[in-house]
Amino acid sequence: MIRRILAFLVRLTTGVRTAPELGEIHKRRIYLANHSSHLDALVLWSAIPTLRRHATRPVAAAEYWQKGRLRRWLATRAFNAILIPRHLANMRDEDPLEKMLAAIDNGADLILFPEGTRSKDGGIGPFKSGIYHLASKRTELELIPVFLENLGRILPKGELLPLPLIARATFGHPISGPDPTEPKTDFLARARDAVVQLSAN
Q1: Distance CA 45, CA 25 (A)
Q2: What's the total number of domains in the chain?
Q3: CB of 31 within 8 A of CB of 112?
Q4: CA torsion sign, 133 to 138 to 103 to 15?
Q5: pTM for this one?
Q6: In terms of Cα–Cα distance, which of 75, 199, 87, 91 is closest to 148?
Q7: How far apart are CA 189 and CA 191, in angstroms?
Q8: Residues 63-68: what's their mean pLDDT?
Q9: pLDDT at position 161, please?
Q10: 3-state DSSP call for residue 32?
């Protein structure tokens, strides 16, 4: 119930609409989105159809989401995020890829921001290799590209309070994971291009 109320409030305040159901309902999936704001994970999660949202876990930066009671509550209680440390020194005790694979094997869909960091100018940066390794190890996954619009303006970097603007989440059709013969760089460029193309819609 708490999750439904939270998702409703996010959609109400940002204007983002619930996405149509895409792909095959029985398949696990990863949502691949551009990254410009700390609101991205919450807004994308809120836009996912209810039947899928309960099993969807954002992959998020531990250093940010473990600061303060509200952030910790949102990350751990509301949308059950997979918290990944961004600094190599903090990764010694846990492998981020293994954490994500374990979540998928336990029935979770994931929200991933393959750029790895927020955009400073609103553009979509190169995708890092994590999504390639993840999709290569779980070839049955559906990869859903998502373009998030206006969130960098609603909550710019360094700001604490969101501005009253309308957000938009555009979901694309599933793309295939990397073919065994497809070079990593080609796959990463193809996945990024699927998100970039949605920005023109």
Answers
A1: 17
A2: 1
A3: yes
A4: positive
A5: 0.89
A6: 199
A7: 6
A8: 85
A9: 54
A10: strand
**Do the beta carbons of residue 140 and residue 27 sit within 8 Å?**
yes
Specify the length of the chain in residues: 201
pLDDT digits (tens, 9 = 90+) for 124-153: 999 999 999 999 999 999 999 999 988 767
Q: Is the pLDDT of residue 75 over 90?
A: no
Query: What's residue 157's pLDDT?
Result: 62
Looking at per-residue confidence, does 150 or 58 come out higher?
58
Task: Write out the residue range of the structural domain in which residue 110 sits.
Answer: 2-198
Residue with token string 């994971």: 177
If you search the block for the tokens 């957000």, which residue do you land on?
167
pLDDT of residue 120: 72
Q: How far apart are CA 25 and CA 146, in angstroms?
A: 17
Q: Give the lowest-confidence range in 18-32, 34-48, 73-87.
A: 18-32
Spell out where 63-179 has E strands. Answer: 82-84, 109-112, 142-149, 168-171
CATH code (residue 121): 3.40.1130.10
As a whole number of angstroms, the distance between CA 199 and CA 146 comes to 9
Can you give the pLDDT at residue 58? 95
Going across the sheet that includes 142-149, the strands are 82-84, 56-61, 109-112, 29-33, 142-149, 168-171
Radius of gyration of the chain (CA): 16
From residue 46, how far is each of 62, 64, 158 by CA, in Å? 20, 20, 23
